[in-house]
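(Deposited chain)
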Amino acid sequence: MTAFRFHCKRCGNCCTRPEGRVRVDPADVPRMAALLELSPAGLASRYLTPGPEAWLLVRLAPDGACPFFEREEGLGACRVYEARPEHCRTFPFWPEVLEDERVLREVQRFCPGIEV
């Protein structure tokens, strides 16, 4: 396991990577929907698509960014921050980042908040 420190710089790089995918556990849907004042079905039809296994995936904007990403005074922000999916809450402490030095180095290239 690779040890590192993380302090989010609010750069938005993790939210705007075209090759990125935001996994949403079905248990996250009611919280996100309530925050956006949508029904769970409304949230799913507008923002989600089926993914592998039991996961849902957020439909990315045409530019590849998460549709919940926005900028506030030049800093990255999330419209669903209080109810964001576990996948977002746990970044960058994902098992593949913790267990594989190559993956950690790849994530470090776009995330200035990681300090090894």
Remarks:
- The radius of gyration is 15 Å.
